[in-house]
Amino acid sequence: MIKRILSISAQKPNSTGSGVYLTELVKAYHGLGCEQAVIAGINQMDEVELPEGVAFYPVQFQSEELPYPVVGMSDVMPYEHTRYCDLTLEMMEQFVTAFKKRIRQVIREFCPDLIICHHLYVATMLTVEVVQEMAAEDKAPRVVAICHSTCLRQYRKNALLKERIFNGIRGLDRIYALHSGQRRDISRIFELPEEEIEIIGAGYNEAIFHRGLDGEELGVCFAGKISQAKGVKSLLRAMAQVQTKQPVHLYLAGGSAEEDEVEEIHQMAEELREKHGYQTAFLGKLPQRELAECYRKCQVFVLPSFYEGLPLVLLEAMACGCLAVAADWEGVKEWIFQKVPDARLEVVKLPEMEAPGVPKEEELPDYEMRLAKALDRQLAAAMQGKKQADMSAMTWSCVAERILKEEEKEC
User: Fold this and answer.
1) 193/47 same-domain check
2) Which of 153, 207, 292, 325 has the most CB atoms less than 10 A away?
3) Strand order in the sheet with 142-146
4) What's the domain range around 86?
5) Where are the beta strands (DSSP E) in 192-310?
6) What is the pLDDT of residues 116-158, one digit of tens each?
7) pLDDT value at residue 137
């Protein structure tokens, strides 16, 4: 039986989708009575929120050992970070040394039954290597990993340690994919049979994300990095084409490290107000309870990102009752409709891409027109009193229990 679980990520918990995923699984296992430890990369002065009793072992960036900001799995992150593509050989050697040292220490001190890594990339590779090196000392814990899609982008674009990462990922005891499209990608990239990769999906915290009273105003909300990588400029241009005659309030929740881009987005929002009367509120990065309140006062949630794994914010907003509009990322709508067949989700065909997550500029006007039409349909449905389906089949407790069930078969 699995009683002791170690979770590992190279970047901050509590921030970005994969960080929230890690934290919510930790909370779910805390509720199930498991003893837990977490290893994660953080910057100086970062605060980490985990349930009481969970042991936290940071790998400290901006330190003598790692004299640069924490490495981000996306090239655009909502906090100070280093891009993987900018790591020199010396910087990568520092990363490898720091993480292997910490992983080895925690395995010896904490003695986990199961290690859950996040991202199929360097930190996961290092975990597999350390466990293999320590296997002769004692019984080795099972090592599994959850893919969040951004790791596949980094693997494709960066040459550093590529063969070593390939071998490390193939050495995992199990890989969990968020949806079928991602499973196909993992199978192709790491030359593994699809049937060896489990689809686990994602979840939401039902204690925070739940329905409330219907909002009095017609509201559209977005949550994510305030950047065009997340489709925010396209969203503002689409809002200018929305046909509803009711005043619409747009709420943008999220942070960004790109000041020039944010300034341009603010200017676009001001033009939207002047020409169309739509008010845009920039809320910054919100704590989860405040984000849930934002969802509850809005009728429609929109996520027009050009690349996503399985976005947690989409599930969370739908759990709060929002009708949803999202780009048609591979595998996501199939997974949601499999779990909740009557979910009110409009998907919008993506533009053609120059590279993963980078749309062709000439494709954007048609994409934005499709986005506007989908928004019109969901706004009209909201005004007609249509309600979002019950999303309770997709909670974090369901995800956590399924992983335990799968792994206990092998123990």
Assistant:
1) yes
2) 325
3) 55-60, 35-42, 4-9, 114-118, 142-146, 174-177, 197-199
4) 4-203+395-408
5) 197-199, 218-223, 248-253, 279-284, 300-303
6) 999 999 999 999 999 999 987 777 899 999 999 899 999 999 9
7) 73
User: Does 24 reside within a domain?
Assistant: yes
Asked if 158 and 254 sit in the same domain, the reply is no
Specify if 208 maps to a domain: no
**DSSP string for 135-192:** TTTSPPPEEEEE--SHHHHHHHH--TTHHHHHHHHHT-SEEEESSHHHHHHHHHHHT-
Backbone φ/ψ region at 185: left (φ over 0), alpha (ψ -120 to 50), beta: alpha
Residues 145 and 252 grouped into a single domain: no
How confident is the model at residue 257, as a pLDDT?
63
Helix (H) or strand (E) holding 366: helix 364-383
Which tokens in the block code for residue 313?
Answer: 């914010």
Domain count, the chain: 2
- For residues 315 and 174, membership in a common domain is answered with no
374-385 as b/e: b if 16+ CB within 10 A: bbbebbebbeee
